[in-house]
Amino acid sequence: RTIVIHPGISRRNVKKKIDSKSINILFAGVWFERKGGIVLLRAHHELKKKYKNLRLTILGPIPKYVNLKNSEIIQHDFVSYQRLLNEFYPSADIFVLVPPRVEGYGLVVLEAMSFGIPCVVSNIGALPEMVQNENNGLIVKPGSVTSLKKALERLIRDRNFRKRLGKNARQRYLQKFTISKRSSNE
């Protein structure tokens, strides 16, 4: 018999998000290209033409050839873990991690879920074990700008759907991915 024991993260109280007219998309990853950052930038570029209230925050270094100088994209090479937990997750409406080829686990997805944020992930590695398509997030085709754009547009346009997926993300985290759940092997 094989049992998968997922890494757990500390149970946390979620600070209430501030409702704003902006839709805040968050991407966090040290390996920008490997984690799907280029795919996200392309999808964001297309969506920004239609949705002026869209805001993208990138946490982690980006390659030198990526020029964000004249864009409205917020980017930080590094933020402290406390700032991530206290500022960036609570203000995010959607979390994106869409590696085009490979992904070990994607702990940031669990962290986003713990804050009740719906996640858009690619169908790679353990990501589909965390995110259940149409239940607590959306799963897209790896490396596909079109697939990511459609998923994001659906979440942007349908606030109730986004909130339902976020609520379900928080519940899935509590039921399966806390440290106490990991330790009890439930």
Write the layout of secondary structure elements.
Layout: E1 23-28, H1 37-50, E2 54-59, E3 74-76, H2 81-91, E4 94-97, H3 107-114, E5 119-122, H4 127-130, E6 137-140, H5 145-157, H6 159-176, H7 179-184
Parallel strand pairs: 1-2, 1-4, 2-3, 4-5, 5-6
What does this structure look like?
The structure is a single chain. This protein is of the alpha/beta class and 186 residues long. 40% of the residues lie in helices and 15% in strands. It has seven helices and six strands, in the order E-H-E-E-H-E-H-E-H-E-H-H-H. It has helices at residues 37-50, 81-91, 107-114, 127-130, 145-157, 159-176, 179-184; strands spanning 23-28, 54-59, 74-76, 94-97, 119-122, 137-140. Strands 3-2-1-4-5-6 form a six-stranded parallel β-sheet, with helices on both faces. Strand 1 (23-28), helix 1 (37-50) and strand 2 form a beta-alpha-beta unit. The radius of gyration is 16 Å and the shape is globular. The mean pLDDT is 91.
Structure summarized in a few sentences:
The protein has 186 residues and is of the alpha/beta class.
